[in-house]
Amino acid sequence: MAEQDCVFCKIVNQEIPSYTIYEDEAVKAFLDLSQVTPGHVLLVPKKHVANIFEYDSDLAQTVFARVPKVARAIKAAFPDSTGMNICMNNGKIAYQSVFHSHIHLVPRYNEEDGFSMHWADNTEQYNDEKLTAIAQKIQNNLGE
């Protein structure tokens, strides 16, 4: 069911035009208008879910199974790209700006191509005891 004010639901329902790359019964992939790098594509489930926390295993299997197909098409279309960032932002703090789950496929060309990510290295702050406690806390919440 589409959310009334969701821009991605409107794109899925063809109420807003898009540059569609791929579409089937479950997903739609289209160009991100910002084109962080040439070939930047968004892949969205047609079912409105806000983020990864709302996926069930069937939806996850369906959506993520389409990622390699679209990624390969982008790579073939832009053979001068030397890599690809595939990312999903979940929640405002994680830079999600449209609250309909979407996966960014961003082809990479060089270190000055307009895309960047920074991963802090906090290795020195963690020892075996802290890492074991974190791992156990997550394992205890896996459920099914």
Automatic annotation (TrEMBL):
<dbReference type="GO" id="GO:0016787">
    <property type="term" value="F:hydrolase activity"/>
</dbReference>
<dbReference type="InterPro" id="IPR039384">
    <property type="entry name" value="HINT"/>
</dbReference>
<dbReference type="Pfam" id="PF01230">
    <property type="entry name" value="HIT"/>
</dbReference>
<dbReference type="InterPro" id="IPR036265">
    <property type="entry name" value="HIT-like_sf"/>
</dbReference>
<dbReference type="InterPro" id="IPR011146">
    <property type="entry name" value="HIT-like"/>
</dbReference>
<dbReference type="InterPro" id="IPR019808">
    <property type="entry name" value="Histidine_triad_CS"/>
</dbReference>
<feature type="short sequence motif" description="Histidine triad motif">
    <location>
        <begin position="100"/>
        <end position="104"/>
    </location>
</feature>
<feature type="domain" description="HIT">
    <location>
        <begin position="7"/>
        <end position="115"/>
    </location>
</feature>
<keyword id="KW-0378">Hydrolase</keyword>
<dbReference type="GO" id="GO:0009117">
    <property type="term" value="P:nucleotide metabolic process"/>
</dbReference>
<feature type="active site" description="Tele-AMP-histidine intermediate">
    <location>
        <position position="102"/>
    </location>
</feature>
<dbReference type="InterPro" id="IPR001310">
    <property type="entry name" value="Histidine_triad_HIT"/>
</dbReference>
<protein>
    <submittedName>
        <fullName>Putative diadenosine polyphosphate hydrolase</fullName>
    </submittedName>
</protein>
